[in-house]
Known about the structure:
CATH superfamily of chain A: Hotdog Thioesterase
Mean pLDDT of chain A: 93
CATH topology of chain A: Thiol Ester Dehydrase, Chain A
Helix content of chain A: 10-25%
Low-confidence stretches of chain A: none
Number of helices of chain A: 3
Number of strands of chain A: 6
Number of domains of chain A: 1
Strand content of chain A: 35-45%
Largest sheet of chain A: 6 strands, antiparallel
CATH class of chain A: Alpha Beta
Oligomer: homotetramer
Radius of gyration of chain A: 15 Å
Amino acid sequence: MDAFEPRDADFRRRVTKSFDLQPFANHIGGTLERVDPGEVDIALKYKPELAQQHGYVHGGVITSIADAAAGYAAMTLAAPSVGVLTTELKVNFLRPAGKGVLLAKGRVIKAGRTLNIVQTDVTEMTDDKTVHVLTGLVTIMFVEGLE
Amino acid sequence: MDAFEPRDADFRRRVTKSFDLQPFANHIGGTLERVDPGEVDIALKYKPELAQQHGYVHGGVITSIADAAAGYAAMTLAAPSVGVLTTELKVNFLRPAGKGVLLAKGRVIKAGRTLNIVQTDVTEMTDDKTVHVLTGLVTIMFVEGLE
Amino acid sequence: MDAFEPRDADFRRRVTKSFDLQPFANHIGGTLERVDPGEVDIALKYKPELAQQHGYVHGGVITSIADAAAGYAAMTLAAPSVGVLTTELKVNFLRPAGKGVLLAKGRVIKAGRTLNIVQTDVTEMTDDKTVHVLTGLVTIMFVEGLE
Amino acid sequence: MDAFEPRDADFRRRVTKSFDLQPFANHIGGTLERVDPGEVDIALKYKPELAQQHGYVHGGVITSIADAAAGYAAMTLAAPSVGVLTTELKVNFLRPAGKGVLLAKGRVIKAGRTLNIVQTDVTEMTDDKTVHVLTGLVTIMFVEGLE
Lengths: 147, 147, 147, 147
């Protein structure tokens, strides 16, 4: 993985502010755990309303935090006037996620002028172990003027 | 697209029951609009808590109903004792979705003994037009004994 | 699917010329069968050197013509000075392909200023039937100055 | 990444034999560089007939060796009577590949009884540097009785 140079020295404040303004992120309850150049971690605690019919966390919820971690990882590298949009994502579900804490890690693999390719992985942490729940690849586009 | 023969004559009741038991589907508020062999439609009305930071519907929400439509489309073809799991999904976001009604259509392209390939598309319907918001491909696995 | 307006009235000649200049396309032996706005078909006859170890056509070959059909479908909509690059592709293999003729159809789903989302499908045609071999989604980028 | 226990002590001989029997792999000229449990590397030297219209290696060629590395990585973990099929793959093209040597690395992320999720990456090595050309995720299915 490359080392990345942020275009906006104030990227941490900007990512945090954007995250705090997301109604859906607040609705499901994720928290920002790490904001570094090209790297963002988001945690999510289990809540019953996030489950699917078998009691596991809904795949759409896991995908949502995987996507969010990817998008914010790219945003750490955006210029101050540039926002981010997900253009496509692909995820593989490796194991079901139960009642532990989910941690989604977005890591920029290729930073571009317009398109950024980001790897995203979600693990579930319980008292005695950590399991790999999801791996994916996300394309994030920089959009001038999108805050 | 092929014509499909359900293995469970009672598939409509079974899909509906499973959908009603999903905490997350109820949490975001989707409704089942169509349940036919290999074909399921799910609708979702805009609510402010489903938005991302720019006021559009969060990509994770759109992906969730796209995934759910795909999974239930495959479930219409499952034997009575067989449940469904998403093994992987890939979506392209075509346009942002605003305050209209989202309609996700899951259509089985290839039905298998174990793996089913399902196309999924989401449109947003407003008073005066319908726009294509997402297209995707989802692999759904049949799992014996999973209700 | 939308109807598309080509930006280059001479798009058929341009796509054909580009296809004819591809060493790899000539190497495996594909032929352009259709070039319309947003739609390109490529055919490929079975040859023993295109097989994998079980005698079926190699997945990489099928993916290659699926990708090419998608790229040229987007190229029909490019301005005269703009070339195309595949940024990402996702394919599902539905059935193995044997000794018939493969037909790859690229269809633009969303035409953009920079990014185009293209559906691609490959069928195998033998004397008595046509089977669906591959379905996929491809993102094609317009690049100014790339011939 | 997990450590993997091969089910077939003779996996190296089996993978090598299968690779040598592939007409297409021989046609484009790849070579097996590493065969370990869950890990396979394939190298490919530039040849003019593998190029697309701009002189870079054709995306279909790069995808082919990425897919092959993934499939053989999974095959190292298969029981003696079990073969492998690619069910789906997703790749992002990070940079164009020129006239160096390509190295595709397949790494099993999740080994299963039926489905294996494999990460695949391709780099181009020239005299003075190594660049990341492709990253992808591939699902490989175990099929009983397929040699």
